[in-house]
Prior knowledge:
By secondary structure, the protein is mainly α. 75% of the residues lie in helices and 3% in strands.
Amino acid sequence: MxxxxxxxxxxxxxxxxxVSDRWIVSQRYDLCFFIGSCILTLGFLGLYHLIQQxxxxxxxxxxxxxxxxxxxFFDQPHIFQTFSRTHFDPxxxxxxxxxxxxxxxxxxxxxxxxxxxxxxxxxxxxxxVFGSYHIIRxxxxxxxxxxxxxxxxxxxxxxxxxxxxxxxxxxxxxNDYTEIGGPVVxxxxxxxxxxxxxxxxxxxxxxxxxxxxxxFVARQVHRLVTxxxxxxxxxxxxxxxxxxxxxxxxxxxxxxxxAEALETAYHNVQYQGWMMHxxxxxxxxxxxxxxxxxxxxxxxxxIVGIIEIFGLSDRGWSMWLFVPFTMIxxxxxxxxxxxxxxxxxxxLRALLFGSGQPTSVNDENS
Length: 366
């Protein structure tokens, strides 16, 4: 027993010397929700091909079924979770009441105007582009959180982390809207003529990414050689985010709605995990608060998912129900960069991070 304890202590000392691994909630929780859920990108890719392989339906129906599973059980539930922060939290609601009432209603009104003008396809593509940007900023916020928790704030590391993440993510993002060669086909004849990006955008950002990636790897080797610990959660998050976006935008070619599922499912679970952490910390006196919100969010997702499918396939009266929920999605994108500004809400930062207290989880928040 004494020998085993001595070995364990030696291993722990060696680990602390070479690896820095402070987590937002815990190692198991973070790896499940914030990092490991990237596996859902592969999961939805496999699901789509599985449905195609064994389904006797029209190929368009395979797209719609894959999208329904994504939006009903992943995307719309994570949108609903935002209300636990905006409307259910009395302090936040009182602070920005107009934004969470008249602001939300105004967005829904704009959605009806868009339908009246017959531009719902353009709205859907705009929401997808905005959503991609939103996902990138959320991932970067988690990156910054792990940097702060692990005191990984050397200027050269800040520069390299910023460079390798943003050039890699935006190279993938730009590639999706380069040389489209026609309309963006959302579903069947629901199409939008969205502006194309010049190929130079991808060429430049990808070259910069390879440059930063080389320097980033060299820096990690240098840290190990000089006895500085490497930030394990940060590296795992970078690997998860960059590899999934590369898979979606460079390595695969899938229809618009399927690509949306591939890109967003990881983000959905990441956000669900964050909101459950927030709910349990913010409302500790409410029994099973996170479970209750999750159950209601899933019911909401199922209802909205059905409405979305009818809207995409019918595009008659059901579109008037579909688009307002799209505006609620845009509301989520807009307010998420406001409600998590930890630099202006130190009490919230202390509540969710304890003594680590990083400056942000969503870079839009810092």
